[in-house]
Amino acid sequence: MLLFYRSSLNPRNTNLLKLITSLNPFTFPYSTSSQTQKQLINHITTSFQQQNHTKHLLTHPKIINLKPHELEPILFALRSKPILANMFFDWCEVHLGFKDVKVESFCGLIHLLLEKRMFDHARKVFDKMCERFEGEGEGFDCFEVFGKGIGRYGSNGVTVFSFLVDGYCRAGKVEKAVELFFRMRGMGVCLSEYALMRMLSCLVEVKRVDVIWDVCLELGNDYKNLCAEPYGYVTGTFFKKGEVNLGFEFHRGVIERGLVPNVVTCNKVMKGLCNDKCLDTAHDFLSLMIEVGPRPTVVTYSTLMKAYSKESKLEEAFQLYDQMMLLGIVPDLVVYSILVDGLFRVGKLEEGHQVIMVALDKGIVLDAVALSSMIDACVKQGNLEKGFEVYRKMLKGGIEPSIVTYGILINGLCQNGRVHEATGILGQVLKQGFEPSVLIYISLIDGMCKSGNLRYGFRLYNEMLTYGHAPDAMVYSVLINGLTKQGRIHDAIRFFYQSLNNNSRPGIVAYNTLIDGLCKFERMKDAVKLYIKMGTYNLKPDVVTYTLLIKASIEMRRLPEALILFFQALKRGLSPDCVTYCTLLYGFSTENKVAIGLWILENMHENSVEPDIDIYNVLVNSIFKSGQVGKALDVFRHVQRYGPEPDIVTYNTMISGYCSLRMLNEAVQLYKEAYLWKTKPNTITYSILIDAYCKEGKVEDAMSLFSFMLEKDLEPNVVTYSSLIDGHFKILKMETALELHEMMLRNDISPNIVSYSVLIDGLCKRGLMEEALLVFRGALDRHLLPDVIIYGIMIHGYCKTGRLGEAMSLYGHMLKEGIVPDKFLQRVIAEYGVSDA
């Protein structure tokens, strides 16, 4: 149990300070003649300069016969050489077998170490002393011994006793530390701020709120001007440790004892809570201040409102605003700026303007910061003209735009491709004597590169260097991207290495940009070289680096290399993201490597990466292509049951898979199921089913579905019409097929080469070659390039109707166009003897 007292001190301690100061600093009980003492000190000093100092020390008779109680006078004599005194003290313990060194010797050594501000050495001696005399229990009290040493060694009392308090705290003896604190107060000796905070920290650790109250009462106003005021320190520490209730209890107790804390200190506590994002605790702390004091100020409210605004908790911020008004606390420009900025950041421009009008009505004069925030919001919302309207109002109102304002406007213009106007704003910046900011340079360089004006972009880059601005990773990546987009890969590589040789650090973003450019130009070998060299420049590849290389490997159909890169990323401790997995999965699924695709999916789950529905769609499509219908259905049902929620692409993939395997009944059943899952079929869904019905010869069912589709206000596409036209030709309903073709044209749906192929094929099969030729020429008039399929249909049609000359002519024309005959056309040529001769 801790026993503390402020007034009922041990009577002997009240006059201790007088006793301490009355002592002669140069008097101690074991004096020797000055000459003998001088010789002894010289001997000790000389000995420790020798390689074998032990042997040399023991040549002096005084040291050979030295007793533990005689150690302190020697230490005192060595007070001008504290390091030597410390070494001699340690040597005596080891070589003279001093197991019962007096506490006075320990205290004496600590005094002379403290005098020279050798605190670390002093702490080690103190810890050794505590360990040595710990067996004496509560009876051990070095307070008086330390006190007497103050006069003898000429030490600073505050330093010595503060060191003692700190030492007790470090040793876990907080009871002794607090007892010593009250003794010091009784003597009129102050405790150093450092030692006080150490003691309070220990008391917080053991949750002794009652003792902390006593300490605060004893301190009174002594520490009110310290930067680490006890109240703020204790409250903040409780909150940081998660002991919120104890923090509130302490606050209440302080108020009840008449020690009302300064509101400025409370505001600092509030700021600390907000910085740590403990907003619920901060709100409760505000409520406590309102309830018991001190009265919150506009700074208290603005601090919490800003934190809420940063977290997009605008409703809570406005509730605080209303509370302020009820309490009669007048909001200032900072409060209104916080609210306006918060609204603008979430895109609520109109509400932000309303708050500004309220501020103006209350006589608040808006500054460049608030108006720049408004301009920034307009730019981010894509309303650049509105932003310039605010800018013009600024000028009209006599408010000088800041460099931030100009940076926002230039960035907005560059993002909208209005680079010429952005350079005009830059001219205004320079005329007004502003130095362009990094944001301005980045925006203009980005704008120039996107508009293809790389030369001016590099001029700005060089100017940026001239002004002493350090380009960041964004600048390098923008310039490298601009070069690669223009196909200037060599220039991009040269610029990248120049920046490295100039001790610049383009960073991983620029590295990835260059690797991406190399991959796009199929320079995989150079991309891999760059990847290998990253370590040379103290850069580590990130997930984006590996994803780019994996994607390039897959596009080059080098799947084993893609898988090796994936394993290298895992080995480096990186966590591939959804994009990496999707890229890898797509590559293997395209090659129908279903087993690997399923393994990748399993690996995603193991690494806590949640696959999105796009990944499942790719996988299901791959499984159907491999003919594993049951496995595809299992994956689909798993998604339905556990998520992510299937979208219409998922259903279309399943329906298309069933149709490709001529499982029309299952496809129709899934189509009906989509409605039950509240997933509305789209044009692609109906087109897939209509095509399947037509291929099965069920044209009436296809037309019925087509009519239902139109009732649902869905627009058929060229695939829908092409399927129906082909279906009607197959059942010899040519008139209906032609009507559907006309309907497609009336609905402004442009036929593609496939739809023309279907129509021409139907006409050729009926022997209507003139009509087929008209359709063929119609395709040419629409600037559609006939492929080998449409040539094959026409040539075969001419051959079947005996018009071999026209077949030969068309075949010759096809060859001149550089189109190579496929197997079907080769058989037709061989069968009918058609050649290009």
TrEMBL record:
It comes from Artemisia annua (Sweet wormwood). Coiled coil: none annotated. PPR repeats lie at residues 157-191, 262-296, 297-331, 332-366, 367-401, 402-436, 437-471, 472-506, 507-541, 542-576, 577-611, 612-646, 647-681, 682-716, 717-751, 752-786, 787-821. InterPro entries: Mito_RNA-Proc/Resp, PPR_rpt, TPR-like_helical_dom_sf. Pfam families: PPR (PF01535), PPR_1 (PF12854), PPR_2 (PF13041). The keyword Secreted does not apply. The keyword Repeat applies. It comes from the Eukaryota. One of its GO terms (molecular function) is mRNA binding. Belongs to the PPR family. P subfamily. Keywords: Repeat. This is Pentatricopeptide repeat-containing protein.
